[in-house]
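User: I'm new to structure prediction. If I give you an amino acid sequence, what do you actually give back? Let's try with this one:
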Amino acid sequence: MRKVTPYEGDYLVEYGYENDPDFALLAWVFGQTGRRVQLAGRSQFTTYEITGPGEVRYTTTGWDAGTAWKGLPEIRTVWVVGDEHGSIHPDQDWGAVQSYQETAWLDPTQPFSMGTSSEAADPPKEWGRYEQLYDARIDADGLSFSFIPNGDSPEKVVSFFPAVTTIPPFSTAFDPEGRIFTIRLYNTCLESGSTEADVDEWLGDYPEDLYPYSFPAGSLGRDSHFLKDVTVAQDGEDVVVSAVLTDRAWRFTVETSNLGRDNIPSFRIVFREYDWEIDKEEVS
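Assistant: Good question. You get back a string of structure tokens that encode the predicted 3D arrangement of the chain. For your 284 residues, that looks like this:
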């Protein structure tokens, strides 16, 4: 047990394991009966607050407790279902807790990283998965990317499928002088498969004659509501995407998906404008 916060006769308890000091769990304990309800699993909490009886709003770093994966910060409100005896009202769904997750909107002027070992000192070597940029394009509200295996060798193709496919780790940076927003896709290439390596037997459901595959460096096309002068280039082991943010690009979030049968991972960076109802406390 690491921290106990009393609230109107009940208690919010933060606890964890001695050999895992970076992650914690939250539970609500009813003072009258001792009923204990776990509110959140092992997470890296940055903040949490009691917002009502049996109700807590928390934010996490985005790190997963079971794997070396870092996603978006999680912003969630969770509440206990039932009273101190565990009785459930007929109008409530069965379950110990219910929750609501908010969209995590990030400041593009602040650095952000996402993916496996995305905060390692040398992500490409640490990660060991090789990816090929399959497609990149400007959307109405941001950018989208999809990926296939690097086709230079059977070893690189196999590295794409350790358990499930996923996007490459990436990080963002911002240069305020030119309002340049940069996305670095680690261990990713613009072209592969030109070595005539025999990789067909490892490709499964991919189209025949997929390799050699090349995505052209240079401009991604016309400007959008949030982005100008978007370019893509190879930089050593990585692919770097650069764009000039318009004044309308206030915040962004990341959406991940898969275009194929778990074999074409993709993600979108989605921007939005300033919203007074959401952002009023952030502007003086």
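You can read the tokens as a compact description of the fold. Here is one thing that stands out. Confidence is low (pLDDT under 50) at residues 118-126.
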